[in-house]
Amino acid sequence: MEVPCVSVPRAEGEATRRELAEADLIADDREITVEEDWLYIPVVDPDAVPDGFDLVVRDAPERETQTTPADLLGVDPSYERLGDIVLLDEDDPERADRIARAIVASDLPVGTVLNKASKVKGETRIRDWELLAGEGTETVHREYGFEYALDLAAVYFSPRLATERHRVTEQVAENEHVFDMFAGVGPFAIPAAARGAQAVGADVNGRAIEYLRENAERNGVGDRVTAFHGDVREVAPEYEGWADRILMNLPHSAEGFLETAVSLAGDECVLHYYDIQHDEDPFGPGERAIRAAASAQGYDVEVLTRHVVRSYAPHELNVCLDVRLSRAA
């Protein structure tokens, strides 16, 4: 099967392999191959491979030696990976324990297995976890070439939104002013800063802001990221009319912050508004709320994209409205 591979001289192979492994970019289910003086390392995401590496598409045999949890269980269990932590969502304690033991016994590079013990709750959107294997809830997650240290017991983070975060941050241009109103540990602000933007992030979760600052330094953008602990409505007056791009990733609650968002907008600004609505009309409520808030402050609204992020629950969709706000003449 042909897959994207990094092509590197054999003499540089081990150093390159380590760098790609640290970024969690190596396709573990494919073999690294050698041909003459060249090493070919299969990668999971060619777009996230750092500049300077040569990418080719070539055959990479499937690894036959890796033992998966499915091999040990006889069925393919559902789980998510976040750094070296595996996340389960199992109601049956015996089944959860059985899956955890299989994961630990497999060849997955895993240090901890957690099972969801509550829904996301409270203003900081964290949840309770049951520790099934390993120690602790802190890890370093790698996503599209960036690293995020975080503690799942203290902050909210969803690996399922990686593709959506990448979709949005790829739109950021150099020298933009980007304001993330609910920044968490930085998965929007940090890639935006890496593209040359000045990014500001606010969050009511103090631990998330500590990680945001740490992660900005970890990813080499500490000089382009400003982090505030507190309600964004308290910070906004300092940045009135400043933003070229605003992120509102707080589904269920973002509408209550639209007046603040519009106050942050410059004469022209792109707003990424996240919402969860019934699938009969997933975009209408958000669009009407945005238009009302924008017109009240003298802005016209152009909807650029109506985008379904994922299914959230039966008949409910997590959606994003990308809109351009333009100050009316």
Widest β-sheet, arrangement of strands = 13-12-11-14-15-17-16
Strand tally: 17
And the CATH topology of the largest domain?
Rossmann fold
Shape: globular
CATH class of the largest domain: Alpha Beta
Radius of gyration (CA) equals: 22 Å
**Average predicted confidence as pLDDT:** 93
Q: What is the CA-CA span between the terminal residues?
A: 57 Å
Brief overview:
The chain is α/β, with parallel strands linked by helices and 329 residues long. It is built from 9 helices and 17 strands. A 7-stranded mixed beta sheet has the order 13-12-11-14-15-17-16. Strands 2-3-1-4 form a 4-stranded antiparallel beta sheet. Strands 5-6-7-8 form a 4-stranded mixed beta sheet, with helices on one face.
Structure description:
This protein has 329 residues and is α/β, with parallel strands linked by helices. The chain folds into three domains: 58 residues, Alpha-Beta Plaits (2-Layer Sandwich); 68 residues, GMP Synthetase, Chain A, domain 3 (2-Layer Sandwich), CATH 3.30.300; 172 residues, Vaccinia Virus protein VP39 (Rossmann fold, 3-Layer(aba) Sandwich), CATH 3.40.50.150. The chain is 24% helix and 34% strand. The strands form four sheets. It has a seven-stranded mixed β-sheet. The radius of gyration is 22 Å and the shape is globular. The mean pLDDT is 93. One of its GO terms (cellular component) is cytoplasm. One of its GO terms (biological process) is tRNA N1-guanine methylation. One of its GO terms (molecular function) is tRNA methyltransferase activity.
